[in-house]
Amino acid sequence: MRIFVTPILALPLMACAGSAAPEAPAAPPAQPSPANYICDAAPVQYHIGHDATQGMGAAILKESGARSLRWGPPNSTWTMDYRDDRVNVRYDENMKITAITCG
Q1: Angle (nearest 5°) at CA 62 between 32 and 91
Q2: pLDDT per position as a tens digit, 37-59
Q3: Within a domain: residue 21?
Q4: Which of 13, 28, 70, 103 gives a 20 to 30 Å CA spacing to 84?
C-alpha cells in the first residue's frame, strides 16, 4: 500500500518543482536622465546685454547644458521651484538680456 500512496503524495510537490520562476519584464528604453542636463550659467554670462530672441535662447540653452529655458519678462514674478536642468533668462523692456541664472 505504501508503494501506491507515496507517488500520490509526491505529485503536488512535483508540480511546484517543475515551474520556473517568471521572467523579469524587459527594461524600458533608456531615456536621458536629469543628471545629464545640469545647468551651468557661467559659460553664458557673455550673453547679458544681447537681444532676447528665440535664436539667442536656443544658444543659451545649448551652451548652458540645461534641458529647458525659462524667459523672465520685465516686471514679472517667478515661482520659487528650483530645477537643476533649467536656465532662466531675464530681459528688460527693450528686449535686452539682463540676467542669466540656473534653477
Answers
A1: 125
A2: 899 999 999 999 999 999 999 99
A3: no
A4: 28
Query: Which strand (E) or helix (H) includes residue 61?
Result: helix 54-64
> Do 50 and 63 meet the contact criterion of CB atoms below 8 Å apart?
no
What are the grid coordinates assigned to 30, written together?
A: 533608456
Q: Are 67 and 85 in contact (CB under 8 A)?
A: yes
Q: Which domain holds residue 98?
A: 35-102
CA distance 42 to 64: 8
CA-CA distance, 97 to 59, in Å (whole number)? 13
Question: Reduced to 3 states, what is the DSSP secondary structure of residue 16?
Answer: helix
For the question of whether the overall pTM of this predicted structure is more than 0.70, the answer is: no
In degrees and rounded to multiples of 5, residue 90 shows phi and psi of -100, 145
